[in-house]
Structure formats: C-alpha cells, structure tokens
C-alpha cells in the first residue's frame, strides 16, 4: 500500500456533496478516506494503489470546505486518461490475466507437443479408437490424464460428481450416454471407474438427510445410496471421516455393479470382450489402487450382491 504523506501542497475543495462523504464534518474533525487508483502492466495485470488521506475542515477558511493534504507529486493519470481508454483501465474482474496465462500454456503445448507429434494428431483428426473408458470425478484435484499419463486418443473421459455410474433403470443422463457411445460405437475394451480421497460428493452423500428437499447435488449423489447403506452397516463404529473414506471405495464397487445393469455392457463382460476395473487415487499420500471385477453370473442374481475382484494392485 502506498501512503500519501502530508506536505505543504494543499488542494482546497470548496464543496463536497454529503452524498459522497455522508454527514457534514465539524471544524477540525478528521475522517479517513481511501482513494484507489488503477493501472495495467504489460500483461494486463491490474495494479491497485491505495492512498489514505486525512480529510479535515480548515477553520481559517471562509467557507465550510474541506482540505485534502497529500503528496505534491501526481501521477497524472486522470489528466491523461481518455474516454476510449476507460475499458482498459477497468479491465479488472473478467479474469483476463488468467486467459493470458492460458494462452501461453496453449502455445507451449502447440510448440512442444502438437508440432513435435504432428503425425499422431493428424491421425486423431481422422477418428478415435481409445483403449479405455474412464469415469472419474469432476474434482479439480483429480485429473485422470495427469495422474495416469493418458495421452490424447487413449481414453474416452467421463467426469461427474463423485465418479458415479447410475443404474440402467435411472434413465437418461450424460454418463450413460457416454457409456453407450464408448462401448457400442468406439468399442472400448476396458472401463475404469476412479474414486479418490477427500471426495466432496461422497461427503455430501454420507451427510444427506432424506427428509429435506433434494438439491441438484443430492439428486445426483443418491445414485450412490447402495454404497452409503453398505458403509453405514460395515463402518458404523468409525468416525464420520473414516466412513467417508470407506464409502469412497465402496461407491466404486457399487458403480462397477451398476455397469452390469446395462445389457450391452453385461453381454460384453460376460463374453470377455470388455473388462471392468476400479481404481482409487489417494492424493494425500499419492498412492493408487487398482482392481478388476471378477465377473460371476451369480453376482447378478442378487441385486445388491457383494462384488468379487481380482488382480488387485497398489502403486506407491
């Protein structure tokens, strides 16, 4: 903060509306007022300079005016500012500096990735044949491509709150539309559902009060109600945070079973054409757990049957 110190230079204001300063000041009374100046750097970053001045009534003055004591030096911004430059001066709250940074990152990607692998990207322009369908959480801390190293064209991505797969009977949603397209049209061979630590969606699921009106979030996370029920039964003596962690993994298994409620997925899993996998990313200690659904037809006879898994791995 830049503070304008008093000096011998004084600027007398003959009248200032009470609508600006509020009630009238009495002789000798001091009121603190903040002046804010704006300017832009070369990268359009906003620089805010705040100056604190003492406003007081000069008792020797012949009028009830105010005197502002401030530095004799002036930046001259007001005099130099033209109306056609106002938009640049108040270029503040639109996040323009963020997009300037984004521009540099994009150009870096183009130079260091796209142009150096031009043939690969030109082939992608002709079509896609991903090996994976990945269903992950929308959480900004959990990007499957970053943590698992997927390259463009390798994985068809679906991200939603709490990485949930709704059952077939729940009706249309963007998630099951992606399931239909990736399995039937793109013919992916592996479906991977990735849960993660500290999931806000799972916390909302575990905190949900069935008696209150449902919000959009509650209407979505209710797709994990089976995972919640299993967690409440199996981990009732644990703390709430520990129950949430338990449910984060259990919800992945429930989603794997929900995948099998889709006829075209169940058929391909049964024939060994498609494999269904679960994953759990703990970003607190940066570990990843992976397992594969061990399909057994008996599991489908009981709607809420326990899941059988194989090929369990832990990467740390």
Q: CA-to-CA gap between the ends?
A: 46 Å
One letter per element, helices H and strands E, the order comes to EHEEEHHHHEHEHEHHHHHEEE
What is the number of helices?
Answer: 12
**General form:** globular
On the 0 to 100 scale, the average pLDDT is 78
The percent range for strand residues is: 15-25%
Cα-atom radius of gyration: 31 Å
Question: What share of the residues lie within helices?
Answer: 25-40%
Strand order of the largest sheet: 6-5-7-8-9-10
- Structural classification: alpha/beta
Number of E-state strands: 10
Oligomer: single chain
Instruction: Identify low-pLDDT runs.
Output: 1-59, 61-92
Biggest beta-sheet profile: 6 strands, mixed
Keywords:
316 residues; alpha/beta; six-stranded mixed beta sheet; four-stranded antiparallel beta sheet; 12 helices; disordered N terminus
Q: What's the structural blueprint in terms of helices and strands?
A:
Blueprint: E1 10-13, H1 18-21, E2 30-40, E3 46-56, E4 66-69, H2 77-80, H3 86-89, H4 96-114, H5 118-124, E5 132-137, H6 144-148, E6 155-160, H7 174-185, E7 190-196, H8 200-207, H9 216-221, H10 225-234, H11 240-259, H12 263-270, E8 275-282, E9 287-293, E10 309-315
Parallel strand pairs: 5-6, 5-7, 7-8
Antiparallel strand pairs: 1-4, 2-3, 3-4, 8-9, 9-10
């Amino acid at each position: 903060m830049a503070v304008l110190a008093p000096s011998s230079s004084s600027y007398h204001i003959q009248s200032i509306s009470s609508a600006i300063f509020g009630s009238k000041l009495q002789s000798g009374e001091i009121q603190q007022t903040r002046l804010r100046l704006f300017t832009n750097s070369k990268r359009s970053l906003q620089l805010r300079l705040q100056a604190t001045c003492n406003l007081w009534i000069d008792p020797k003055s012949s009028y009830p005016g105010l005197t502002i004591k401030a530095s004799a030096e002036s930046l001259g911004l007001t005099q130099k500012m033209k109306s056609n430059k106002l938009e640049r001066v108040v270029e503040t709250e639109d996040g323009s500096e963020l997009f300037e940074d984004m521009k540099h990152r994009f150009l870096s990607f183009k130079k260091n990735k796209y142009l150096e692998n031009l043939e690969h990207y030109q082939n992608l322009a002709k079509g896609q044949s991903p090996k994976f369908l990945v269903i992950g959480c929308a959480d900004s801390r959990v990007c499957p491509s970053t943590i698992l190293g997927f390259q463009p064209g390798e994985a068809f991505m679906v991200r939603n709150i709490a990485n949930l797969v709704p059952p077939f009977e729940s009706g249309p949603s963007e998630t099951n539309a992606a399931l239909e397209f990736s399995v039937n049209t793109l013919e992916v061979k592996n479906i991977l559902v990735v849960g993660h630590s500290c999931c806000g969606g799972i916390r909302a699921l575990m905190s949900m009060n069935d008696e209150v009106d449902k919000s959009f979030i509650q209407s979505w996370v209710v797709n994990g109600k089976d995972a919640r029920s299993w967690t409440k039964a199996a981990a009732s003596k644990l703390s709430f945070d520990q129950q949430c962690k338990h449910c984060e993994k259990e919800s992945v298994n429930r989603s794997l079973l929900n995948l099998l409620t889709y006829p075209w997925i169940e058929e391909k899993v049964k024939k060994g054409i498609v494999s269904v996998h679960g994953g759990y990313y703990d970003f607190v200690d940066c570990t990843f757990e992976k397992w594969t659904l061990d399909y057994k037809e008996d599991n489908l006879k009981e709607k809420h049957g326990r899941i059988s898994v194989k090929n369990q791995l832990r990467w740390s």
